[in-house]
Amino acid sequence: MFYTIPQTRPSTPLLDKISSPADLRELTAAQLPDLAYQLRAFLLYSVGQTGGHFGAGLGVTELTIALHYLLETPEDHLIWDVGHQSYPHKILTGRREALLSIRQKGGLAPFPRISESPYDDFGTGHSSTSVSAALGMALADRLQGLSRKTVAVIGDGAMTAGMAFEGLNHAAHTGADLLVILNDNDMSISHNEGGLATYLAKNLKDKMGATTAALFEALDFHYSGPVDGNNFEQLLPALKQALAGTGPQFLHITTVKGKGYAPAEKDPIGYHAITKIEPIGQPKVTKKQPTFASVFGQWICQQADQDLRTVAITPAMSEGSGLVEFSRTYIERYFDVAIAEQHAITLAAGMAYRGLKPVVAIYSTFLQRGYDQLIHDVAIQELDILFAIDRAGLVGEDGATHAGCYDISYLRCIPDMVIMTPSDEQELSNLLQTGYEYSGPAAVRYPRGSGRGNIANSISALPLGKATLLRQGNKAAILNFGPLLPQATIAAEQLDLTLVDMRFVKPLDQEMIDQLVSDHPLLITLEDHSVKGGAGSEVSEYLHTKNYNNKLLTLGIPDRWIEHASREQQLQECGLDSSGIIAAVSDIL
Ligand SMILES: Cc1ncc(C[n+]2csc(CCOP(=O)(O)OP(=O)(O)O)c2C)c(N)n1
Ligand SMILES: CC(=O)[C@@H](O)[C@H](O)COP(=O)(O)O
Ligand SMILES: [Mg+2]
Q: Does residue 252 line the site of ligand 1, with CB under 6 A?
C-alpha cells in the first residue's frame, strides 16, 4: 500500500524489462504481484508529474496485467470503455516513458487512440461504447474467417448507459465470440446511482453471484464471477476460463477504485482525477477563483430557494457540474440519473410537462448523446427546460473527445431554441436567469475553468436577444460570443475597434448588426466554438439575407481536431488568444 505519491522516480526493475506484452508473457505467474506493485509505483509517480485520471487505473492494474498475459495482443482485441483507466495498459504496451507526457501538447493522448498504438483497438473518451465496438470487431473477424479473441472492459458506471445494453442485447442474438468484463468497483465518478448499481452491490454483499448471473444470463451471456479482480489467484483462472469459452461470455470482477493508494481508496471521488503535484518547495498557489461551474452551482441553489418547482438533473457529473451543494441541500429535487444523457433529457421533458422547472446540467460533449431527445422530446413539444451547458468550447487536456465545439451548430437549427453565450461569471448568472424565465427550451453555454472573476452581486434576467456595446471604435467591429471577451478587449483597444458583447446567438441582435454595418466595413465574429455553423455562421446568414456587403471575418475553432494541450495552448493554436486575433484582424485591415 502506498501512502504518498512519489516525487522521484521509483525503482521498478521488473517493470523496466517490459517493453511490450510479449515480454510480460515471459514472466511466471508468481512474478505478477511484484510487477503489479512496481506498475502502481510508476503509475503514481507518473500521474503525480502530469496530473490526469488516477483512481480507475490503479483499480485495474491486476486486470491489465492479466489480460495482456493471457491474450495475444495486439492480434486479439482489447477495448477499454471510457479509456480513463488505460494508463497501465499504455505502460505495458511500449509507452512507459511516454506516459510522462500524457495529456500534454504533443504527448500521449488522454485515452486510448487507434493512431497512437496497435494495442489501442478503439478510441474512447465517452463511455459505454465498448460492447458495441467489440461486437463489431468480433463479427468482422467472424465474417473474414479470422480467429481472434475480443474483450471489452466496462465499468459499473459505464454499464448504466442504454448503449451498453443495446450492445449486450445484440451480442446475444449474434452468438459472437466476445468477452465482456464488468469491472465493478461500485463507483462512477460519484457514487454510482440507480437500480443496477444497487442490485450489483446488494448481490455482492449477500454473496449472491447466482442472482447477478441471472440478469446477464437472461441476455444469453455465459456469466462467471464475481471474482476479486485485484487478486491474481482468483483473476487468472477466471479469466482463462472465460477466454476459453465460445459465444458471448460475461465475467464479473470486483475491484477497488484507487487500489493501492490509501488516500484514493478512502476518497475515490476526490481521486477520480488529480492535478499534477507541485514539487516540494514550490510556493503554494493563491486562493482559487470560482469556476463557471461553481457560479452555476450557486445560481441554481439560489433559484431553488425561491422556486419550489426548480429541479436539477445531471447524467453522472455532479462534481464537475457544480451540483454537490444542491444535491445536499435539495435532496428531493436533485436527480443524478447515472450515465444516461438521453434519459436525462426526456426525464426533464416529462417533469416540465407536469409543471416542474428542470435544469439539465450537462457537458457540451455529452449533450451530443441526447440530440434526438432534445429535438423530439423537448423542442417540438415546446417544453420549458433550461440546459446549463458546461465545458463548452476547448477543454484542454482531455482533448478532442471532450471538446464542446459543436453545440451552437447543432442547437441553432432547432426552432425557438434560445442560445446564450455569457462572457463572464456575472453574465452567466444573469443569462441563466434569462433562460430560466424564458418559456421554452433555452441553453446557456460556458467553458471549463474560471473567467474574469467578476461575480454578480445581484442577478437579473437580461432582455432576450439584446447585445451590449462595450467600446466604440473605427472601421471594424468585434462581435464577441462568449468567454473570449478579455482577448477581444485587448485586440479592440490595440486596433481601436468597436467591441460588442453579443450574449445571444439566438435570437441574434439583428438591430445591433443593422447599426454596425453602416460604419464598419469589417465585422469580426469571435467564439470558442467551431467556425462551421457557429455564431459566425448565424451572423453570416443574417448579413446575406439582408444583402449587406460588409466583409466578415469569423474567428473560432478551425475545422480540424484540436489535440490535448492546456486550454491556453489550444486557444493559441487556434489563433484565439489576443495576439492571434490582432494578427488575423490586422491582416484584413
Ligand atoms: C457519455 C459519457 N458521459 C459521461 C462521462 C464522464 N465520465 C467519465 S468516467 C465516468 C465514470 C465511469 O464509471 P465506471 O465506468 O464505473 O469507471 P470507474 O471510473 O469506476 O473505473 C464518467 C461519468 C463520459 N466519459 N461519457
Ligand atoms: C473521463 C471523463 O469523461 C471525465 O473524467 C472527464 O475527464 C472529466 O472532465 P472534467 O475534469 O472537465 O470534469
Ligand atoms: Mg466504476
A: no
pLDDT tens string 498-530: 999 999 999 999 999 999 999 999 999 999 999
Structural domains of the chain, with CATH: 15-273 (3.40.50.970), 292-445 (3.40.50.970), 468-587 (3.40.50.920)
Whether the model clears a pTM of 0.90, i.e. scores above it, the answer is yes
pLDDT band per the 50, 70, 90 thresholds, residue 282: low
Please, are residues 443 and 407 in contact by the beta-carbon 8 Å criterion? yes
Q: How does residue 287 score in pLDDT terms, banded at 50, 70 and 90?
A: low
158 is in an annotated binding site: yes
Is residue 154 in contact with ligand 2, taking CB distance under 6 Å?
Answer: no
Q: Transcribe 33-68 into DSSP letters.
A: HHHHHHHHHHHHHHHHHH-EE-HHHHHTHHHHHHHH
- Alpha-carbon dihedral sign for residues 347, 350, 355, 359: positive
Q: Which residues are CB-neighbours of 272 under 8 A, at least 6 positions away? A: 53, 54, 55, 56, 189, 257, 319
- The residue nearest atom 13 of ligand 2, judged by CA position, is 320
Under 8 Å between Cβ of 111 and 158:
no
Does the C-beta of 448 come closer than 6 Å to ligand 2?
yes
pLDDT tens-digit map of 375-390: 999 999 999 999 999 9
**What CA–CA distance (Å, rounded) separates 505 from 65?**
50
**CA 481, 484, 490, 494 torsion: positive or negative?**
negative
- Write the ipTM: 0.99
